[in-house]
Predict the 3D structure of the following.
Amino acid sequence: MKIRVQDGRVFEGTATQIVQSMKSIALGAPCMTLSEYVDWVAVRAGAIEGVELTIAGTSDDERCECLIERMLAQGIAERA
């Protein structure tokens, strides 16, 4: 999968690989677990973009997949 986020950056790979790549460049995020980062992105999307990203799943892979699906559905990312 390949997505483009609002700042124009393009990420490619599985949902987990994409979220890991996003996390690696986010200020303050490297000290978070992947699951904490998913929650952080969901909260920030609500605060900054005014969209609700409800995250489901128990494993990191499920949560990352859910995050990417919600970002695409809410228009804060698009398929590239």
Remarks:
- The chain has a mean pLDDT of 94.
- The first helix runs from residue 15 to 25.
- The two ends are 8 Å apart (CA to CA).
